[in-house]
Amino acid sequence: MAEIVFTYSKCVDLVYHVLAYMQVCNASNLYSEKYICEFEKYRRTSEFSFDLRRTMAKIQQYYNHNFERLGIVNFLPLAQPDESFEELKKRLLNYSGFTREDKDFFVEPFVTALEKESLLYFPYWESEYRNTHDRRKKCEARLESLLKSCDCVFSHYQKNRAVAFLSFSITCNGRGSYVQDGFFAAVPLPQNEREVEQTFFQLFHEYTHQFTDILLNRSIRMDDGTHDLSENLVILTDYFIIKKISEEMAKKYLSWISAINGASGTFFDEAAFLNLFHIPPDLKEMMLKEIKDIFSDEI
Predict the structure, then answer these.
(1) CB 196 within 8 A of CB 146
(2) Using CA of residue 245, residue 251, residue 253, residue 257, what is the dihedral sign?
(3) How far apart are CA 139 and CA 218, in angstroms?
(4) What average pLDDT does range 95-101 have in this prediction?
(5) How far is the C-alpha of 203 from the C-alpha of 188, rounded, in Å?
């Protein structure tokens, strides 16, 4: 049985908080007008007047034009989620994949924004962490139960841990990170117990990327269609795995997929779902074999 671990970090959340203020022209977008409006109410109660929205608007064009190099800022903080703020800044500033122009026009202004915003955000995060204690523990208990129902997946891939980074600042999408002996993903902290199943689906989605992306056997980019293909593969794989574990949970999964694809209130049946998400026949064959192997371990 894999160990289920829940983790939190104000430093990592600061990065996602700042990214929530920047509009990105692809599916990795974390921009949230609702989140910004809520946080700006808090900002107005403080003595800090840093204009984060304006700062991020100045650097978002360079980020979008050079996303394939700069998108790594979404994942570098997850490599060492327990590191200090100073260590995190060094990790961002010294990453070897950035060009000199990247550092001048995005990375250094981005780190400066982190420094300035931390003065306001860190006290806010610490207060939120204290005030959400009871809700977090209830959500963690339910998430642990749901993740344990998928232990056949963890066992098949010899993962000893399933780590869930629950974020106060991510409000859409999620982030996964490769860990040798476990699965690791960052997802929004559920706002209530009703959202726990949605968070579970999002966690499982990020975990699944770790083994389905290998099936693609190619670099995954936003600009050539490979990211869309990888997403379709994960969505289908998760459905068939969840369906084998629980038919009832599979129905809830279809409802969740329907909602995040803009069809809220319209239930996807299996036929409509499979008609919407396509992968090539050879890839589908590999996917079905992978799923069969996962469950054959239980026999």
Answers:
(1) yes
(2) positive
(3) 36
(4) 97
(5) 9
